[in-house]
Structure formats: C-alpha cells, structure tokens
Amino acid sequence: MTVNITRINPEQLHETPGYHHITVVESGRTAYLAGQCPLDQRGDLVGSGSLERQVDQVVANALGALTAVSAQPHHVVRSVIYVRSDDRDALGVAWRRLTDSALGPAFTTASTLLGVAQLGFSGQLIEVDLTVALPD
Predict the structure, then answer these.
(1) Contacts 24+ apart (CB under 8 A), 23-30
(2) What is the pLDDT of residues 90-100, one digit of tens each?
(3) What is the pLDDT of residue 4?
C-alpha cells in the first residue's frame, strides 16, 4: 500500500502562509511523535535564550525521529507548534525558521501555531508535535 496524502485549501476559507486547512490520509499506519524539544542527546537544553538555536535543535531532533520510523518531512500530516511567547513577532520568527529548514515540508500540511505561557523544561522556548502517515 502506498501513502496517499491530499492537502486541500477550500476556496471559501482564507489563504494561509503555506499550510493547508485540510489534510486527508488514505493509508494504514500512523506515527505520533512526542513533542520535539530543543534538547541535545544528553538531555541538555540547547540555545538558552535563543529561539533560533532552539528551533534548529528541534528540527534536528524531529528529522532524527522521522528517520527512526523511515519517514520524511513530506509524510507529516499534522503539526502543532508551541512557542513560549505572547509576542506575535516571535511566533513569526519560529514559523519562518521552521518552514525554511530541512523540516519545512512538514508544515505545508494541517498546522497550528500557538503562543503559550510555559513549556516543560526550564528555558524551553519551542516544542513541535508531529503526526506522520507512514510510508510502506
């Protein structure tokens, strides 16, 4: 069985900055990645105080997790991005850095970007949650 993913932006809904309103998956297996955090392999926070460096570490971790399940960014069918900030500009910085990265194709699918008050690790500024339609 081949993964069949269709991404749709209905005409009656607003234009988006790159993501799709609807993602339809017609396949059998799905992987749910835990929220990818800006932690290195030892579990230490990377890029204290730097949203950009933390985004880069999250990208590296997410790419590693996708590789572990034989998937690529274009197999992602849902993303949720949490940014510890109430500043809309910071959310934009995170979005652009993610979409310009090697993980960028993951964010052309159904996606949500949220500013939040707190994340799980002290000093953590970003976390990315991904759902993946696994290829055969």
Answers:
(1) 23/77, 23/78, 23/109, 23/110, 25/77, 25/133, 27/1, 27/2, 27/3, 27/133, 27/134, 28/1, 29/133, 29/134, 30/77, 30/131, 30/132, 30/133, 30/134
(2) 999 999 999 99
(3) 83
